[in-house]
Specification:
16% of the residues lie in helices and 36% in strands. By secondary structure, it is α+β, with helices and mostly antiparallel strands. β5 and β6 form a beta hairpin.
Length: 724
C-alpha cells in the first residue's frame, strides 16, 4: 500500500494555507440555501449506436454527440407547446429506451416504500409521433420495465406481477396470490432490498417470450411495528423484519411462459433457509442463471436452469472461512461461451474469466489491490474497463486491460476518485472525477483516455469553496501499537497555529467493508466538518480494521466479533492524536451514524478515559435487534455465536459512561429500529447515568425532510460547543 505520511511540518505548512478564508460557513448554507450544492449531469444514457448519448433535464431528454460533446437536439420535450390541450406531465424522474429506441418509458411521482423501493406513475413516449401515453390506471406501479422487443412492459402492483401490452394497454395478471406481509411476487422483501441491494424481482428473457421472477413467502417472518404520530390517534405501521437468528422468507424462482401462460417453479433446493441474491438470463433465452447462498453466507453457488424443463445444473461454487461477498460483476458474454466474475478468492477482489461449464480460463487482474467494479466490456476488441484501488485504498482509478490480463492502461488520474459511464460500443466514456477538495468534474473521453471535452467543471463552486475557506482536507497514516497502518484524513482550523491546542472531533463509521477515508469530494458531512474547523475544532476520520479497499483479510478480521477491534482502533487513534502538541487531549469527541453510532457509543464507554463527549445518531445498540442477512454475515446466528453479539454490546457497558453522551433516533426508522435507542436509554438510566436524548417523530434512518436536518445539525453543533 502506498504510504501517505502527514508530518507535523506538513500539517503546519499545508493547513495554514487556508488562512485566506473570508466567509463563515453556516448550517443554513449547508442545509437550507444549497450554497455548496454541485452541478451535475443527470441520467446519462448511451444510445444504441454508441455515438450518441442522452441526458435528462427538467424540460425533456436531450441528445448529444460523443465525438464532440455538443447537443444535437431534443429526443423528447415533456411539455411541448404543441401539446397545449394535453394534460401537463408531472416532473419526470427517470427514463428508459426500448431496444429499438422508438419508445421511451418515463416515470414520475415516486412515493417511497422503504429506502430503495417505491411506486411511480409511468408514461410511454412515442418517438415517431411525439405522443405521450399514460400506463398507470389502477394505482401506481413498481419497477415497470420494457420487454426486449419493446412491445410489452412488466410491473408489480399490490405484490402481484403483471404484463401489459404497450399498444392496447391489455393487462395479463401473472400472479394472484400477492398479499401485504404474506406473499410478494416480482419484487423483494425488506431484508433483500436493504442487504442484497435488489428491488427488481423479475427479468425478461432475451427473446421476450418468458419472464423469470421471485416469489417471497414471508408469512413466517416476524413483524415489527412502528407507531406513526400525527393525528388524534396515532397509527401503527407493521411490516416483516427478520432479526438475527429469526425466520426468513421462503424464496422461490418461477418462469412464466407468455405463449402457454403457464408458470414453471424451479427446484432451487430442498433447503428453504437459504438466499437467492441474484438471478439473470444468459445469452441463451432458455437458460436462466441463479446465485444461491447458504444462511451463513460462507458458500456461494452459481446454477444454470433450463427454462423449459426446470432442470438445474451447477456452474460455479465458492467457499470462505468467513463469508463470500455477492460478486460485483457476474456477466455472461455475448459469445455465449464465457462469463466474467469478480471474486476475492485469492485474497483481493479481482476479475476472472470462466467458460460456460464453470472452468477457469484466466484470472484477468492480479495484485494486492481490490477491483471495485467493471464499467464496460468491449468484446469485439477484447478489452475490459474497470475501477480499482490499485494506486491506494483511498483512490479509485479507471483502467483498461485485455482478456489475457495484459496491456493494462491507466485512464484516469491516479490521485483521486473516478467513475465512468461508457458508450454502448465502449468507444467513449464520460468520467466523473473528484478528489478531497475538488467538486465533481465531468469530462468526455475516447476509450484511450484522450480528453475530448470538459462538460462540467463546477468552477463556480470551486471559487465559492475558496471564498468560504473550504477545501482543507488532508490525508495521512498512523501505525497502531500492533503494527497496523490505518489511513486517516484531517481538517484543521483555517488559521491553524501549532502553538495552540485544539479540541479534536472524530467522525467514525467503521462497518465491514465500508470506507470513509477516500480521496473524494463531499459525503460524510464535508461542509459541517469545515464549519466546525472554522469554529476551532480539528476534525479527523480514520478507517480501522474491518474496513474496505485493503483486501479480504483486512476486511474480514472482525468476523464473529464486531465492535472489538473497531473500538480498540478508535481509542488508539484518539490517543495517537492526543499526543500531538496541537491537540488538547482532554477535549476529544467522537460522532457516528448507524454503525458509526454503535462505534461512537461503544468508544465513549470503553474509552471513558480518552473521549470527553460522543454523539450517536440512529445507532445499533445490540446486534440481536438488527436484520439477519447483514448481522449473520459477520457474526453468524446468535444461537451459534452468542458472545459475538453480547461481548461488545454497549448495553453491557452503560455503567462505564463518564463523559457527555448525546443519543439521537427517529421513531420511524425501519432499518435500525428505535428499539435500540429505547434499550440504551433504559440501560443508562438503570446505571444511574445522565445523558442527552433527542427523538425525531416519524423520521426514518436518514432523519431528513423539511427543516429536520437543519434542526439535527443545530442540535449537534450546540452539543459540541457546550460539551467539548
Amino acid at each position: 500500500m502506498k504510504r501517505l505520511i502527514l508530518s507535523f511540518a506538513a500539517v503546519t505548512m499545508l493547513l495554514c494555507s487556508a488562512s485566506a478564508q473570508t466567509k463563515q460557513i453556516t448550517l443554513e448554507d449547508i442545509w437550507s440555501k444549497g450554497t455548496f450544492r454541485p452541478s451535475g449531469i443527470s441520467s446519462i444514457r448511451s444510445m444504441k449506436d454508441g455515438d450518441h448519448y442522452c441526458v435528462l433535464t427538467r424540460s425533456g431528454i436531450d441528445k448529444y454527440s460523443y465525438k464532440t460533446g455538443e447537443k444535437i437536439g431534443s429526443v423528447c420535450a415533456f411539455n411541448d407547446p404543441m401539446r397545449k390541450k394535453a394534460k401537463p406531465l408531472p416532473p419526470i424522474e427517470s427514463y428508459e429506451f426500448s431496444s429499438d429506441e422508438q419508445k421511451i418509458l418515463l416515470s414520475a411521482e415516486f412515493e417511497p416504500i422503504y429506502r430503495h423501493s417505491g411506486v411511480s406513475s409511468y408514461y410511454v413516449y412515442n418517438v415517431a409521433d411525439g405522443s405521450f401515453d399514460c400506463l398507470t390506471h389502477d394505482g401506481k406501479q413498481r419497477l415497470t420495465t420494457f420487454s426486449p422487443d419493446g412491445r410489452m412492459v412488466a410491473f408489480v402492483r399490490d405484490n402481484n406481477l403483471y404484463i401489459m401490452n404497450v399498444a392496447s394497454h391489455k393487462e395479463t395478471q401473472v400472479t394472484s396470490d400477492g398479499k401485504f406481509n404474506e406473499i410478494i411476487n416480482g419484487t423483494t422483501d425488506w431484508v433483500y432490498e436493504e442487504e442484497f441491494g435488489i428491488t427488481q424481482g423479475f427479468y425478461w428473457a432475451p427473446d421476450s417470450k418468458k419472464i423469470a421472477f421471485y416469489r417471497f413467502d414471508e408469512s413466517r417472518v416476524k413483524q415489527y411495528t412502528m407507531q406513526m404520530w400525527g393525528e388524534l390517534y396515532p397509527e401503527n405501521y407493521t411490516y416483516k423484519y427478520p432479526k438475527a437468528g429469526e425466520d426468513n422468507s421462503v424464496v422461490d424462482v418461477l418462469i412464466y411462459d407468455l405463449e402457454s401462460q403457464k408458470t414453471l417453479k424451479l427446484n432451487v433446493g430442498s433447503e428453504n433457509d437459504q438466499y437467492i441474491p441474484r438471478i439473470q438470463w444468459t445469452q441463451d433465452a432458455n437458460i436462466l442463471a441463479l446465485m444461491r447462498m447458504n444462511r451463513l453466507q460462507n458458500r456461494m453457488e452459481l446454477l444454470l436452469a433450463d427454462a423449459e424443463t426446470g432442470t438445474i445444473r451447477p456452474l460455479y461454487e465458492e467457499e470462505d472461512e468467513a463469508y463470500v461477498e455477492v460478486p460485483d460483476t457476474w456477466r455472461f458474454l455475448a459469445d455465449g461461451r464465457h462469463m466474467l466474475l469478480t471474486s476475492e478468492r485469492d485474497g483481493y477482489n479481482h476479475i476472472y474469466l470462466f467458460d460456460i461449464e464453470g472452468k477457469l480460463v484466466n484470472q484477468i487482474t492480479k495484485g494486492n489491490y481490490d477491483v471495485v467494479s467493471i464499467c464496460s466490456v468491449d468484446e469485439k476488441n477484447g478489452l475490459i474497463y474497470y475501477l480499482s484501488h490499485q494506486t491506494s485504498p483511498i483512490n479509485r482509478t479507471l483502467y483498461s486491460i485485455d482478456f489475457k490480463g495484459n496491456k493494462q492502461k491507466m485512464l484516469s488520474p491516479a490521485e483521486g476518485w473516478s467513475n465512468a459511464s461508457f458508450s454502448a460500443n465502449s468507444k467513449y466514456y464520460i468520467c466523473t472525477f473528484t478528489d478531497a477538495n475538488t467538486p465533481p468534474v465531468y469530462t468526455l473521453h475516447s476509450n484511450s483516455g484522450k480528453l475530448l471535452k470538459t462538460l462540467e467543471d463546477n468552477a463556480a463552486l470551486k471559487t465559492r469553496m475558496t471564498e468560504y475557506g473550504a477545501g482543507n482536507k488532508r490525508f495521512g497514516t498512523l501505525t497502531t501499537s500492533r503494527g497496523t497502518e490505518l489511513n486517516y484524513y484531517l481538517i484543521t482550523p483555517p488559521n491553524f497555529d501549532s502553538t495552540k491546542r485544539y479540541p479534536l472531533f472524530f467522525y467514525v463509521y467503521g462497518g465491514p467493508g465500508n470506507q470513509q477515508v477516500t480521496n473524494s469530494y463531499g459525503g460524510s458531512d464535508y461542509y459541517w466538518f469545515h464549519l466546525l474547523a472554522q469554529e476551532g475544532y480539528v476534525v479527523a476520520c480514520f478507517d480501522g480494521r474491518g474496513t474496505g479497499g485493503r483486501g479480504a483479510a483486512f476486511k474480514k478480521m472482525t468476523y464473529k466479533n464486531l465492535g472489538k477491534m473497531e473500538c480498540e482502533d478508535a481509542i488508539e487513534a484518539a490517543r495517537w492524536f492526543g499526543k500531538k502538541q496541537w491537540i488538547d487531549e482532554d477535549r476529544i469527541g467522537i460522532f457516528g451514524w448507524s454503525f458509526g453510532g454503535y462505534l461512537s457509543t461503544l468508544s465513549i464507554l470503553k474509552g471513558n478515559d480518552v473521549f470527553k463527549s460522543a454523539i450517536a445518531v440512529a445507532p445499533v445498540i445490540t446486534w440481536r435487534y438488527y436484520d439477519n442477512i447483514y448481522t449473520e454475515r459477520f457474526l453468524q446466528r446468535p444461537q451459534d455465536n452468542p458472545r459475538g453479539y453480547d461481548d461488545n454490546s454497549p448495553l453491557n457497558f452503560a455503567n462505564l459512561l463518564q463523559g457527555n453522551y448525546l443519543l439521537v433516533h427517529g421513531t420511524g426508522d425501519d432499518n435500525v429500529h428505535f428499539q435500540n435507542a429505547a434499550a440504551m436509554v433504559s440501560a443508562l438510566e438503570t446505571a444511574g447515568k445522565q445523558f442527552e436524548f433527542r427523538i425525531y417523530p416519524n423520521k426514518n434512518h436518514s432523519i431528513y425532510g423539511g427543516n429536520t436536518r437543519l434542526n439535527l445539525y443545530q442540535l449537534m453543533t450546540d452539543f459540541l460547543h457546550r460539551k467539548l
